Amino acid sequence: MRCVASSAAPPPPGSGGALGTVIDVTSTAPSHRVVSVSRTIAADPSTIFELLDDPARHPDFDGSGTVLSSRAGSRHLQLGDRFGMDMRMGVPYRMTNTVVEYERDRLIAWAHQGGHRWRYELTPVDGGTEVTESFDWSTAKIPPFIELIGAPKRNAEAMRRSLERLAALLEQPGA
User: What is the distance between the alpha carbons of residues 26 and 150, in angstroms, rounded to a whole number?
Assistant: First the structure.
């Protein structure tokens, strides 16, 4: 794993930014409150997006262990759509999210009442698609609280596991 200071920085030449490599991109400066993890997955963007924009599939690749189920069943999301999820972090709870960024087969992000965002960006590359998952707390209502509870570090590890699970779902024979 490689840490760099800017979410826009590509992996340096010779760093092994090949299929399956995970790259953590972290910055905690107030104007850069985003942590991201990227992985190349051997699937085309539309196939990957079909999983990302269906809330019923989120538990299948969630690496945090907190996403239990979609409250509305299977459906595909659009910009402005709201969707509810049953969650568990110690105790069960429900979360309603709103799709706040959307470009079919390329980008989807949602936010909930706390204001922070979960974002997936898809970029076609040789051998598949680079998938970048980001936790963006620059839009959170109380960003220092997010940092105080250690969410950026915890979420980076969960996102790495999420991308591993997403790759396993899509790269298995018959997927």
Answer: 13
Q: What is the pTM of this model?
A: 0.79
Q: Which CATH number fits domain 3-65+114-171: 3.30.530, 3.30.420, 3.90.1200, 2.60.60?
A: 3.30.530
What sections of the chain are H helices per DSSP? 45-52, 58-61, 143-148, 151-171
DSSP-assigned states of every residue in 125-139: ETTEEEEEEEEE-TT
- 36 pLDDT band, cuts 50/70/90, is very high
pLDDT at 174 over 70: no
Q: Token digits for 175?
A: 């997927």
Q: Is 116 exposed, middle or buried, given 0-12, 13-18 or 19+ CB atoms closer than 10 A?
A: buried
pLDDT tens string 96-142: 889 999 999 999 999 988 889 999 999 999 999 999 999 998 888 88
Alpha-carbon span 36 to 27, nearest angstrom? 9
| Domain residue limits, the chain | 3-65+114-171
Distance CA 158, CA 147 (A): 16
